[in-house]
Structure formats: C-alpha cells, structure tokens
C-alpha cells in the first residue's frame, strides 16, 4: 500500500509538472509585453495550482465564442460604414495641425475611422454640471437616447437621470442603456431596472459575471466606455460614470470623485453612436448602425475643430490608444500635462515620458493624493523615482479622487476620454478616447488641468528619497504585478 501511495505521489508530481510546463509554454508563445509574461510566470511558479487557474481565468484576452463570432460577422458592415465617412465634406485632413495629422493617419490606417470637422465641443468640468446638462438634454429628446456606462450607481442626481429617461420613454423616445455587469452591480440589484424596463427602456447587462461563464471568457474584461448619444445630434463622453459623487463610495476615504465630460455636436456624434451600436450588437446581436452624418463643407472657423474618435478593446486593433499616447508624447515640443486616477504605465509609456523630460519638454503628471485602489497606489509610487530623476513633475491632487483622464500636448492638441494610464485600460478593456485638434477647447482643458495643479502638492525629489525602507519594499513588491493591474 505504501508503494502504491508513492507511485500515486510521483504521478501527481509528473502531471503537475506537465501542467506547469504547458502553461509556461503558452505564456511564452503568446509573445506579449515582456513584463506581462514575467508577471504571469511569477504567479504561476509562486502559487501552486492557483497560479495556473488564475492564468486560465484571467491570463488571455477571451471575449467568448458567441461575442467573437458576432464581432467577426460585424466587421465588414462597420468597416464599410467607416469608409463612407471619407466622403463627408467634414473630412479635411489637409487642414489638420502638424500634431493631429500623424494621429489621424494612424487611426485611419488601423481603425479605418477618419477625423471629422464641423463639430462644437463644450467642456463640462463638474459632476453637477454634467448631470444637469444631461438631464436637460434628455428632457428635450425627441427620437432616441443611447447610453453606455461602466458604473451606474443609484442615488442623488443619478436617480433624476433615470426618472428623465422613464419620462422620455413614455412620450415615445426609444431608449437603450448598456451597462457593465460588474461595474453596475448595485444598479442591477436596485428597483430601477424593473421600473425602466416597464416604461419601455431596453437595458442590457454587458459582460455578465456568473460562475458558469468563468471558463468561457475572461471575467475581468470590462465595458469601460462612457457614451451618451441623444437624437443622433448630441454626444457625451469623458471620465464620469453615471453617479452622483455625493452618493458614491463615500466610505472610501478619498473624497468625492472629480470628473469631466465633453458635450459634442456635429458629425462626430454619429461616429460615437456607431461605437455604441458596435457594443450593443456584440452583446445582443441586434443591429442599430446609425445613419451617416449629414456633413456640410466646413467654414473657415470650423477648420480647426477636428475630432478623431479612437475606440479600443476586443475587436479593435490591439493597443491603438497606447500607440496614440506614445505618438502624442514623442511629438511634444514644449509641454505634456497628464491627469489620471490610476497611474501604472507600460514600459514604453514610462520611457516616452522620461525621454520627453530629458529633451527639455515640461512633463507634468497629476494624480490623486488618495486612491481607492491600494494596489494601484503602491504600484504607482514605484515609478516615481525614475520619473523624478528624469525631470518629470509629479503632482498629488488634494481635492478628491481626481478621475479625469486627459492629456494636453503643447497646449494646442489634447486627448480626453475613458482611458486610465494603466495596463488594464490600455490593453484589455473597452475604452474610447477623443483626439481633439481645436486650440480653443484644448486651452480650456489646459486651464482646468492648471486648476488641478494649484490644488496639488508637487512631489519633492529629495524628500521622496527619504521615505522609509518599508515603503520602498512594498512599492517594489507591487511593481512586480504592475503589468497586470
């Protein structure tokens, strides 16, 4: 009997070794960013069995068979729709600035989506302004309202938005709402979905989280876009989820969340609506591809309001927003100002920021002083020394959890949208960013960034080096996992 158990033990060891070897080969042959591969190998070797299970659940970008098949079937119709935008008179690539043209060329070649002019943009810089403006536009809607958010959290002005949608649906407006299952879990447990569906609103739970699905697709793949389109004429996007900060994560000890949204009118709204239509069809199989925008020849005053819509995530070209960020930073001649709540940059982004500072570009990074993610907070700190040594300015914002995701280059070109500077946003989640070639709008965003900086503390290089050795060790520990955060 003892010999039998000994043989059984050796067989178990052999199969465990075989499993580790197979997963290791899988990690290596995927040819991803080296840091990501090394982080996964460390987890697999340090955590017996659990590391392998974690990799099978979260290690690869698996959208699920049904969604992948839908996306494949959708590709050509959407590609044709985007191609038709080249005939829009608002497509005037020869009028773009020297910053915008390379970004437009990259996005047209990889995404097939051209930049369009003839838009108007309004920067809404507080949650109260955003929600009040949204409620007013909903009350004025006549035909359709399409909404897509990562988080819808009941309470306060968010409930007023829900009430406005119900009233709109009752007067005949077609309302569709797509919400991420994990981010909006509290909303789906509330009474609002039943009330809204009863009024005729179509609500879809994106990327549902259930134990049954854990081996069918990657569970931490999230729908992180924030998009609203009303009557195909008014669009909203930016950093803010559908929450009233006075009622959201009040117990987290980080203060109220600070966000911005951009209200857009013009031909770009149809492009934003097409991204929503893509997400809706991937999730439901129902097609609502919008009409092409009615473009007029841009006037002289409109020639510098180019907007490039840049979606990313499964079904889109890999790391497209990451590429745009790198291109923007490497093009900078005078200044780069970045605001982000979660700062865990890729190796390439880290190097781009350091290179910019070392060639004399003023580089400022504004992040929250307190973060709702302990892991991200410690991982972020692990990059400070390198950046400070290169001459990058790091500002810790004290006015709440700064959730605005923005990049301003040379005060004349900007990126604004849903993307955090972390690997999850840049490589995994469904995201959207607007590249805006409009000096007036960019100046407004730059002024807002400067207000954030005034309410921040600049990290002092010499003081930073004096932090306790324990802090340094914790930072290095979480740095090892930064490619997965």
Describe the structure in your own words.
The chain has 485 residues and is α/β, with parallel strands linked by helices. It folds into three domains: 2-58; 66-99 and 119-302, Endonuclease Chain A (Endonuclease, Chain A, 2-Layer Sandwich), CATH 3.30.870.10; 320-484, 2-Layer Sandwich (Endonuclease, Chain A), CATH 3.30.870. It is 44% helix and 17% strand. The chain has an eight-stranded mixed beta sheet, sandwiched between helices. A seven-stranded mixed beta sheet has the order 1-8-6-5-2-3-4, with helices on both faces. A two-stranded parallel ribbon has the order 7-13. β2 (144-149), α7 and β3 (174-180) form a beta-alpha-beta unit. The protein starts with a helix and ends in a 6-residue tail after the last helix.
Index terms:
single chain, 485 residues, alpha/beta, Endonuclease, Chain A, 8-stranded mixed β-sheet, 7-stranded mixed β-sheet, globular
Short description:
The chain contains 18 helices and 17 strands.
CATH homologous superfamily (4th level) name of the largest domain: Endonuclease Chain A
- Helix percent reads 40-55%
Count all strands and give the number: 17
* Number of structural domains: 3
Number of continuous helical runs: 18
- Can you tell me the CATH topology of the largest domain? Endonuclease, Chain A
The second-level CATH architecture of the largest domain is 2-Layer Sandwich
- Percent range for β-strand residues: 15-25%
Q: What CATH first level of the largest domain would be assigned? A: Alpha Beta
Strand order of the largest sheet: 9-16-15-14-10-11-12-17
Radius of gyration: 23 Å
């Amino acid at each position: 009997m003892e010999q039998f158990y000994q043989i059984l033990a050796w067989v178990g060891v052999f199969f465990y070794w075989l499993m580790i070897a197979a997963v290791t080969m899988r990690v290596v042959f995927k040819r991803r960013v080296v840091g990501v591969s090394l982080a996964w190998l460390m987890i697999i070797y340090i955590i017996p069995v659990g590391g392998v299970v974690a990799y099978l659940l979260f290690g690869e970008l698996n959208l699920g068979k049904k969604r992948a098949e839908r996306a494949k079937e959708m590709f050509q119709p959407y590609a044709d729709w985007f191609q038709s935008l080249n005939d829009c008179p608002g497509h005037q690539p020869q009028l773009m600035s020297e910053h915008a043209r390379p970004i437009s060329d990259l996005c047209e070649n990889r995404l097939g989506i051209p930049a369009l002019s003839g838009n108007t943009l309004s920067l809404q810089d507080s949650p109260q302004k955003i929600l009040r403006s949204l409620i007013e536009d909903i009350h004025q809607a006549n035909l359709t309202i399409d909404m897509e958010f990562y988080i819808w959290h009941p309470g306060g002005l968010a409930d007023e938005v829900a009430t406005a949608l119900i009233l709109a649906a009752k007067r005949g407006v077609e309302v569709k709402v797509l919400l991420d299952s994990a981010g909006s879990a509290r909303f789906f447990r509330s009474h609002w979905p039943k009330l809204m569906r009863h009024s005729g609103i179509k609500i879809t739970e994106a990327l549902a989280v259930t134990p049954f699905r854990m081996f069918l697709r990657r569970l931490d793949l999230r729908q992180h876009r924030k998009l609203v389109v009303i009557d195909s004429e008014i669009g909203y996007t930016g950093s803010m989820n559908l929450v009233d900060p006075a009622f959201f994560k009040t117990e987290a000890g980080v203060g109220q969340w600070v966000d911005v949204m951009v209200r857009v009118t013009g031909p770009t709204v149809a492009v934003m609506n097409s991204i929503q239509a893509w997400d809706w069809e991937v999730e439901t199989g129902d097609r609502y591809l919008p009409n092409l925008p009615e473009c007029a020849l841009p006037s002289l005053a409109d020639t510098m309001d180019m907007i490039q819509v840049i979606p990313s995530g499964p079904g889109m070209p890999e790391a497209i927003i990451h590429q745009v960020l790198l291109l923007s930073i490497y093009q900078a001649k005078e200044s780069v100002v970045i605001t982000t709540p979660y700062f865990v940059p890729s190796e390439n982004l880290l190097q781009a920021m350091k290179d910019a500072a070392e060639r004399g570009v003023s580089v400022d990074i504004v992040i929250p002083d307190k973060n709702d993610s302990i892991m991200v907070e410690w991982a972020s700190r692990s990059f400070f020394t390198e950046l400070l040594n290169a001459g990058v300015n790091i500002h810790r914002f004290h006015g709440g959890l700064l959730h605005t995701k923005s990049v301003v280059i040379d005060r004349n070109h900007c990126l604004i949208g849903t993307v955090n500077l972390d690997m999850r946003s840049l490589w995994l989640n469904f995201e959207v960013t607007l590249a805006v070639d409009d000096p007036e709008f960019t100046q407004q965003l730059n002024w807002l960034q400067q207000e954030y900086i005034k309410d921040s503390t600049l990290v002092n290089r010499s003081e930073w080096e004096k932090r306790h050795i324990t802090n340094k060790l914790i930072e290095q520990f979480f740095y090892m996992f930064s490619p997965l955060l």
